[in-house]
Design a protein that fits this description.
single chain; 118 residues; alpha+beta; 2 domains; 3-stranded antiparallel beta sheet; two-stranded parallel ribbon; globular
């Protein structure tokens, strides 16, 4: 059985796909109505469920708040195809640091600010 959180995150991932953007765990969790948890633990669980139950969703658009991903992973390959650069200077043996341009990073707060002004 799929969790409600995973379903909500799946909806947010669909938004990201349509917008052709990526988002950090905390922003996705907030958009879905919960906290990402310590070190993004709740989001990691949701992403694991989404990869299992909805493999067609672009789960790789969800990135950790510190913008690191596993070295030589499918996620880093997909993000590179999208135009996200990797900072090899800040990389470790297991992780690589992403360089996400602002125009690729989803920002839902802009829409909220405009709605508050109206």
């Amino acid at each position: 059985m799929t969790s409600t959180r995973a379903e909500d995150v799946a909806e947010v991932l669909w938004e990201l796909k349509r917008a052709d953007k990526v988002a950090k765990f905390s922003a996705i969790a907030q958009r879905a109505g919960f906290s990402a948890g310590t070190n993004g633990r709740a989001m990691h669980t949701c992403i694991k469920t989404i990869r299992r139950d909805w493999p067609h969703l672009q789960w790789w658009r969800a990135i950790t708040d510190d913008e690191t991903v596993e070295k030589d992973s499918e996620q880093v390959e997909r993000l590179a195809e999208l135009g996200v650069a990797v900072d090899n200077q800040a990389s470790s043996e297991e992780q690589v640091k992403l360089e996400v341009k602002d125009d690729l990073l989803m920002d839902w707060t802009q829409g909220e600010e405009e709605a508050a002004k109206a």
